[in-house]
Design a protein that fits this description.
With 162 residues, the chain is of the alpha/beta class. It is 27% helix and 19% strand. It folds into two domains: 116 residues, TIM Barrel (Alpha-Beta Barrel); 36 residues, no CATH class. The radius of gyration is 17 Å and the shape is flat.
Length: 162
């Protein structure tokens, strides 16, 4: 038995402390909701300590709160996780929220963190229109290919479906 990471197979006992559902690089801006006038100021604001409470209550008010696209910042944060004993994580970013297997692979190489990539399709309204024209068998073939050959046009294989 083995675990499939974005860098290849490892023995399960080498996983160590593992976070079970993360998104290292993700784009949820398709879920952005035009906030009411009293919170419109949040639309283009980056998350800060000053607006954190508001964004916890209304996470979809800020477009920048719905985007993680800075691999260097992600690496910095993962190195902090590693310092307190973290050794692995499962990234569940799937079709619809911009999965980036090559980005995950680069992050794993830079940090030494074992990253297991999930594969699959997110949910409406972020699914591609073309998905509705495909059969269940074609979708199942995608999932199996992502596990056995590589995800989203790469040779980087997913470790699980989710």
């Amino acid at each position: 038995m083995h675990v499939r990471t974005v860098l290849g197979r490892i023995a399960p006992e080498n996983l160590g402390i593992t976070l079970g559902h993360e998104h290292l690089l993700i784009d949820l801006r398709g879920l952005w909701e035009n906030p009411p006038p009293e919170r419109a100021y949040l639309t283009d604001q980056e998350p800060t300590l000053e607006n954190l409470g508001e964004l916890i209550r209304n996470p979809y008010d800020s477009k920048l709160n719905l985007l993680i696209d800075d691999p260097e910042l992600t690496i910095t944060e993962l190195l902090s996780y590693q310092k307190v004993g973290g050794q692995a994580l499962i990234d569940m970013t799937t079709v619809g929220i911009k999965p980036d297997p090559q980005g995950l692979q680069a992050i794993a190489q830079a940090t030494g963190i074992h990253i297991v990539a999930g594969c699959g399709y997110y949910r409406q309204p972020l699914l591609p229109e073309s998905l509705h024209e495909r059969s269940k068998e074609e979708i199942a073939d995608d999932l199996l290919r992502w596990l056995s050959e590589g995800m989203y046009g790469t040779t980087i294989r997913a470790g699980l479906m989710g």
